[in-house]
């Protein structure tokens, strides 16, 4: 496993980053693997380069993207109750923290009951992590941040704990939805493995509902989600010297009710061939052929409870937004 290297240290802020060459090689390997598979696919974690992270922030403001608003509403109404699930001194670890905007509500609820707070955000996107950490440190004088620019798995193996403190892991924003049921089970097992009995996990999971609500959230009228999806091709152009023409691909999002997931594709508008110079690969596309870029699984409560119990957690409380579209689940590590 790759050892993270501290690269910047100031008083209340430490940031760890795995080497950029290692990340670059990993990206190249995953692109090769995904685009030579049948059907073609690309891992969704690669959406989040500097532009992709900004596009995701824009998605959160769209009228169709109810998820962020619903989870924010839950924290606005219940933050004190949520953090009260873990009495005593606590620190926060957040997987896929992004802008950490919603997290502020939980940070404030914890700082209302203890004098300082240690926050460990883990995110693959360097730009969003640096921006959010700098804003948080400016706004909260009693906050200490150790940030990990890393994949969840590497980040989890590096989390720190101070004596007598319990750890609350946040996995918000329906991030769990990007994983197939088996992958989700595995990741939750890794999270549990990084925790001790008495620690907690707050899991934000989107709920099953009508496709008339779900599909527009991933296919908005302004085309921001389409740009977010297509940026994956531009990223391959930029980082691996490829010649994808984004105008020759189309964004598509379909809710597959039986599987309970939104499938997000890039669809080739024509028969075409694309060259990826840095990995010496030429890829052929038929007209209508897809690259599967993301899944977003939707859950029901029975599935969530079963997952918790199977992975060594006790599902303790669930909160919903007023329209019951989204759930925040507090699970106690047992
Ligand atoms: C859907 S956004 C959610 C951001 C924020 N938690 C929220 O709820 O608004 C996903 C975030 O997770 C990060 N991310 C995605 N896959 C990741 C992975 N495998 N490891 C680490 N971070 C990841 C992205 O960079 C992005 O900031």
Describe the structure.
The chain has 334 residues and is of the alpha/beta class. It has 2 domains: 111 residues, no CATH class; 177 residues, Vaccinia Virus protein VP39 (Rossmann fold), CATH 3.40.50.150. The chain contains 10 helices and 15 strands. Strands 1-2-6-5-4-7-8-15-14 form a 9-stranded mixed sheet, sandwiched between helices. A 4-stranded mixed sheet has the order 3-13-10-9. The longest helix has 18 residues. It is globular and about 60 Å long. The mean pLDDT is 95. S-adenosylmethionine (SAM) binds next to helix 2 and strand 5.
Name the beta content range.
25-35%
The number of domains? 2
Order of helices and strands: EEHEHHEHEHEHEHEHHEEEEEHEE
Number of strands: 15
Cα(first) to Cα(last) distance is 28 Å
What is the 3D form?
globular
Radius of gyration in whole Å, from Cα?
A: 20 Å
Main beta sheet: 9 strands, mixed
Ligand kinds: S-adenosylmethionine
Helical region count?
A: 10
> Which structural category fits the helices and strands?
alpha/beta
Mean pLDDT: 95
CATH-derived architecture of the largest domain = 3-Layer(aba) Sandwich
CATH class of the largest domain: Alpha Beta
Uncertain residue segments: none
What's the assembly state of these chains?
single chain
Q: What's the name of the CATH homologous superfamily of the largest domain?
A: Vaccinia Virus protein VP39
């Amino acid at each position: 496993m790759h050892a993270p290297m501290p690269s910047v240290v100031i008083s209340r802020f430490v940031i760890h980053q795995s080497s950029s060459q290692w990340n670059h090689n990993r990206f190249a390997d995953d692109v090769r693997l995904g685009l030579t598979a049948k059907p073609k696919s690309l891992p969704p974690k690669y959406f989040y380069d500097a532009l992709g992270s900004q596009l995701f922030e824009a998605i959160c403001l769209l009228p169709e993207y109810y998820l962020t608003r619903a989870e924010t509403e839950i924290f606005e109404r219940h933050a004190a109750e949520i953090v009260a699930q873990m009495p005593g001194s606590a620190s926060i670890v957040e997987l896929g923290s992004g802008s950490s905007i919603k997290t502020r509500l939980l940070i404030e609820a914890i700082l209302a009951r203890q004098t300082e707070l240690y926050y460990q955000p883990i995110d693959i996107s360097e730009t969003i992590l640096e921006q959010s950490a700098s804003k948080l440190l400016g706004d909260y004088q009693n906050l200490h941040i150790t940030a990990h620019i890393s994949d969840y798995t590497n980040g989890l193996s590096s989390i720190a704990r101070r004596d007598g403190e319990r750890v609350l892991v946040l996995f918000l924003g329906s991030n769990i939805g990007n994983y197939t049921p088996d992958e989700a089970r595995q990741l939750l097992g890794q999270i549990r493995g990084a925790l001790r009995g008495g620690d907690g996990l707050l899991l934000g999971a989107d709920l099953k509902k009508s496709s008339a609500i779900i599909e527009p959230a991933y296919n908005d009228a302004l085309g921001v989600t389409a740009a977010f999806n297509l940026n994956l091709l531009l990223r391959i152009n930029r980082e691996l010297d490829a010649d994808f023409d984004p105008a020759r691909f189309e964004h598509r999002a379909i809710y597959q009710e039986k599987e309970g997931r939104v499938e997000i594709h890039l669809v080739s508008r024509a028969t075409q061939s694309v060259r990826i110079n840095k990995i010496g690969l030429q890829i052929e596309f038929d007209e209508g052929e897809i690259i599967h870029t993301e899944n977003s699984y939707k859950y029901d409560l029975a599935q969530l409870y079963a997952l918790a119990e199977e992975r060594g957690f006790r599902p303790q409380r669930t909160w919903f937004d007023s329209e019951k579209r989204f759930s925040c689940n507090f699970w106690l590590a047992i």
